[in-house]
Amino acid sequence: MPFDFLKPKPKSTVTRYPTDFLLGDLLVKAGLVSQQQLDEAVKLAGSKNVHVGQMLINFRYISPRDLQAAVDAQSMLRDRTIDQHLAAGCLKIACKTGMTFAEVVRDQHAGTGEGSSNKLGELLSEAGLVTKEQLAKSMGRSQATGLPLGRILVLNGALPETILTMALEIQVRIRDGMMSREEAINALRTAGGGEEGTDQQHHVDETLRMSLMQPRKKGVRLGELMVMAGLLNETDVMNALELGLVNNQQIGQVLVEQGYVSDELLGAALELQRRID
If you write DSSP's letter for every residue of 55-120 in order, what string do you get? Predict the structure, then answer.
């Protein structure tokens, strides 16, 4: 599976998320380390070629559990599940109590109806398709490499490619109001209910299959058009779709930001798509 989705290309830029919040800044905002301690760790981390988080652990300013909580907090920030103020507050509680960051967030949202989100990792976890350990490991690797979480889960062998494709499709349908969250989780449970190669795996619930066969829109999708033209492969399109879902962006915008297509090519593709429609 190619790792070059985020490889810079001519006139490309590395993805910058509007909710980017460096781990060190988050730890300072939560009151877990001082700015002076962070500056010291940053300076030495650069000279020793290690991550700042590891240097903070070496100095015993934070524990490995604290660092994992901070990684989880930043992941939720990037997914726009929480804001910076809530992230810092929940991180402080998690590190003091020993609870996981996700557990603290759920407690904070208890009774408000805001505890659940439609992000990929949470949907897969609730459907029983990935374990908490697999999700935490993959989220950490995603944070380190910049690759989307779904792609990391596939590369780690935690999730089949076919299930990721279906999960992203379902996620889009939730966003577009074509599926409820409960229907989505039930659909994912059904899809992952059988062992690979069995009839159950290859013949997913008929209602689900028929639902997913119905196009979200008429005509050809932009990603499909790019693949048919030989400009992208299916993995590129899936990664762009996942990044778009995380950042609430259209897939075309993601493809331009990643340097896979130019503004001019995107405009031509959209015009062609309009004519097909």
Answer: HHHHTTSS-HHHHHHHHHHHHHHHTTSS-HHHHHHHHHHHHHH---HHHHHHHHHTTTT-S----H
